[in-house]
Amino acid sequence: MIRLGYACSNTQLPSAAGTCRLKNATEEAILNLSRRNLSALKQILLWNRQNGIGLYRISSETIPFGSHPVNRLPWRRLLKPEFSELGRLIRKFKLRVSMHPGQYTVLNSIRETVVAASIAELEYHAELLDALSPDAAHKIILHLGGAYGDKKSATERFIRNFEKLSPSAKKRLVIENDEKNYTVADALSAAREIRVPVVLDVFHHRCNPSLQKQGLLRILELVATTWQPQDGPQKIHYSDQKKGGPPGSHSDSIDAAGFKRFYRCIRHLPLDIMLEVKDKEQSVLKLYRRIPTLDLKNNQQHKFQAFCRTP
User: Fold this and answer.
1) Which end of the chain, N or C, is less surrounded by CB atoms within 10 Å?
2) Which positions ≥6 away from 284 have C-beta within 8 Å?
3) How far apart are CA 240 and CA 134, in angstroms?
4) Average pLDDT over residues 81-86
């Protein structure tokens, strides 16, 4: 079965990534913003369920300054009722969530301060996902980082620093190819060393290709070997080039005709596909209209209504 998802915000609903300036980050402000973000996240997940969307990327800003020293709140304990309710929703309907730390989380940096901050950020992401579910299928996606003029040494540094992570962060980490430094072949090589899955970013692969003698289906098969049963279904990213934008920049909306051609090739595979586009859920709904076999809403609506009636 193919499932589609989108990242971080819903254009029709309040943001689940409210934050504040560092100078205003008091304990009260952080707690109030966190509670508001989790409430908004619940509304997004319920909306997704109602519209047949089982895949969603949670914003890294859900807990403001989650890995920053300014945030000393025991937020997981203080927000346990909210996390429990969200976890129940995720389990009830087999929703899948993920997170993707930003560009400043660079595990193979040559600067130790950056590495330390990156480890703290990954641990925060792991703790948030742990608060929602112990299921290892809810992943943290990370790029391998910079090449620093010596990709071999940079990859070895990534592997060494990976070993500094907690078991929770390790079991959730997935590495992704990028549009500039690390190809799918590079990601596969590193993944085999540290035994984590690879997310194939189809757009990045087109920008920064490797394994040229292999077709896309064969590459998907190779990547699938990195996914174990406990990791859940194989997950990939899909997007298009923004017209007139710098190479590698994501489009505002999905090219439905292009995706339909892609879908014909992979429709038989059990894939979770994250759309990385500016219009978020609108692109998912557009593909549901263009490709009716993707639309799970009619099959799931009665279960959603039953959940909403559950006290």
Assistant:
1) C
2) 4, 5, 6, 51, 53, 275
3) 33
4) 98
With CA atoms as reference, report the closest residue to 50 among 302, 311, 310. 302
Q: How many domains does the chain have?
A: 1
CA separation for the pair 261, 276 (Å, rounded): 18
Alpha helix positions (H), 11-136: 27-50, 75-78, 80-92, 112-132
Tokens of residue 92, six digits: 């009830």
pLDDT of residue 301: 39
What global pTM score does this model have? 0.92
* Domain housing 172: 3-308
Say how far apart CA 181 and CA 187 lie, in whole Å.
Answer: 10
Per the listing, tokens 């973000």 go with 37
> Residue holding tokens 């549901």?
288
CATH of residue 143: 3.20.20.150
